[in-house]
Amino acid sequence: MSSTALWHPFADMFEVKSSSFCVTRAEGIWIYDDSGRRYLDGTASLWYANAGHGRTEIVEAAAAQMRELESYFVFNDYTNPPAEALAARLAELAPMPNAKIFLTTGGGEAIDSAAKLARQYWSQRGQPQRTHILSRGNAYHGTNGMGTSIGGIEANQAGFGQLVPETGRVAHDDAESLREAIERIGAENVAAFFAEPVMGAGGLYPPEPGYLEAVAKICSEHGILFVADSVICGFGRVGSWFGVERWGLQPDMITFAKGVTSGYLPLGGVVVAEHVAEPFWNEPGRVFRHGATYSGHPTVAAAALANLDILEREKLLSRADELERPLHEALLQVADHPAVAEVRGGVGLLGAVELTAEQLQAGALGTLQKTIRELGVIVRPLGKALAVSPPLIITEEEIGLIGKAFAEGLDTLA
Ligand SMILES: Cc1ncc(COP(=O)(O)O)c(C=O)c1O
């Protein structure tokens, strides 16, 4: 018998309809279930609670803005002060000079915006045949139309009929595979290449040394737009604002979401390099006919600004830098466990423990996730691994609790 009307994303509702895990409140790095029991939020919810939970400063900024102007659209010539202030601030923080900011309500919408803008850019530049969009095997770019089509996790594409044509995948860790695809399709037909700096939902894969620099170079050699999908990697997760700075990258576009508000309200967007914006901004009549109702929502923008204040004031970007090694070391303690195939991490406050093929076949990933939750720590099954990405305010001692829960949980596996 069904006990809920809520259809959970990515869930087997046959199981979940009668056994869900209800989170009722949160504070700092801790979340509480409906029986009042607390858990360490080892995943910062879905990779986004960078500043941690219960920040009244963000709540008050949003409430104050709601009293003044809760919402108004920014289509055509309409604007509002928080949307303007947020765009100016993000443009200032971005690694590309004089960038423009297109605001959305989440990461998937940011991906659709960037992919459509890439195609439209080439059309405006007199090369309308440049429509192919390349991305990496195992990539995750959300579940909107474009994001589904350019994603590299095959299960997320099955059974949806024909997806957006002229998209293709290359090997996730081999820059030469991108070069070969470009040569096969013809650079003159390729609009853009999308890549997550650290691959997240595909199983948490930091880039191979030199990989990101190499693909950025290949794109620039072929005049192809390089789009960094920093939806996870931005706002401190890998120690910088847009998740690309540590590799010295200056992408043509950067998609962002999640940590921009630490999740207090839904927001995403695209940082657009000056030369990509140029045909639309410097010539009359060239309209990007795209945008969602809540783009530039003033209350959401006010929450984002308050969140950026916290990230800056508490130096949470360098905190992620300081903590990436302790987190990696905490996970490496289980590297020799017989159920563990690999431990990944060391790039930002992100890590994963991959199980052996034998354990995966026996269904251990789901079981272990639940066992670790029973031990008081939230972790997430992704690909062949359990991933962690705690709030940036976590301490080294609390990171130790994540390592301990992994060790104890693994020992319960047969
Ligand atoms: C790299 C990446 N891109 C895009 C998205 C989609 O974002 P959203 O779920 O806000 O649509 C996600 C979501 O996890 C993501 O990890």
TrEMBL record:
Gene3D superfamilies: Aspartate Aminotransferase, domain 1, Type I PLP-dependent aspartate aminotransferase-like (Major domain). InterPro entries: Aminotrans_3, PyrdxlP-dep_Trfase, PyrdxlP-dep_Trfase_major, PyrdxlP-dep_Trfase_small. Keywords: Aminotransferase, Pyridoxal phosphate, Transferase. Transmembrane segments: none annotated. The keyword Transferase applies. Pfam families: Aminotran_3 (PF00202). It comes from the Bacteria. One of its GO terms (molecular function) is transaminase activity. The keyword Transferase applies. Belongs to the class-III pyridoxal-phosphate-dependent aminotransferase family. This is Adenosylmethionine-8-amino-7-oxononanoate aminotransferase. It comes from Saccharopolyspora flava.
